[in-house]
Amino acid sequence: MATISTDANGLLGLLQLASPSLPIGGFSYSQALEAAIAAGNVTDETSAQSWMLAGLTVQAQCDAALVVLSQRAWQAADLRELRRINEFAMATRESAELRLECEQMGASLARWVRELDLGSSLSRAQLRELAPLSLPVAYGYVAHHLRIVEASTVLGWLFSWLENQVAVVVKAVPLGQSAGQRLLLGLRESVTLAAGQALDLALDDIHSCSPMLAVLSARHETQYCRLFRS
């Protein structure tokens, strides 16, 4: 029988964490992409790709970097730093919908952690202390306890974000499944570049300045017809 490398445990953990079947409700959010479609900013495969390229830049500068810093803080058992990262993550939400999304998905991931008894009782208690819990900090917790290496964690986060955005345009533009797969294939290098940028940032370097995203997200809150919660 062939021997499977011990690195397989980390890979399997990554696949589980990045899976769309992870029960945290990511499929119900578009992160303002639905509003961009309604406004005519995203109408076809080309404009969808432009939106996602810009989104990867925003992710690299903020949430993906927060995930990396969170995983490092969990590894160091630095609760003070985790509180700082969590508060910063919440402060970077630029609309009510984006904050609710971050809180709901963070709470859902924390519930998943409790149901699976992931980590020690002490670490789970520390996770409970971080309330309201942001999704990046919860994601970093899971990545640490599933023994996923940092580079893989951030790639998984970014690919999950991209896959969700593709699912939104396939449903709401609508684009065909083949167009969605072309987007995923064509943006692989951009995902890798964004991951590299996120790995290099300190907390003081992170920002979420994205005025168009903020405006569209705020507009989505009163959009008449919508499929998604953000």
Write structural notes for this entry:
It contains twelve helices and no strands. The chain has helices at about 5-20, 35-40, 45-60, 65-75, 80-90, 95-115, 120-130, 135-145, 150-170, 175-185, 190-200, 210-220. The chain is globular and about 50 Å long. The model is unreliable at about 1-5 (pLDDT under 50).
What would the keywords be for this entry?
mainly alpha, globular, disordered N terminus, 230 residues, 0% strand, 12 helices
Alpha-beta content class: mainly alpha
Helix content: 55-70%
Q: What is the chain-wise order of helices and strands?
A: HHHHHHHHHHHH
- Distance N to C terminus: 49 Å
Give the overall average pLDDT: 94
Shape: globular
Question: What's the Cα radius of gyration?
Answer: 17 Å
**DSSP, total strands:** 0
> Could you give a short account of the major beta sheet?
none
User: Number of helical runs?
Assistant: 12
Strand content: under 5%
* Poorly predicted ranges: 2-6
Oligomerization status of the protein chains: single chain
Brief overview:
With 230 residues, the protein is mostly helical. It contains 12 helices and no strands.
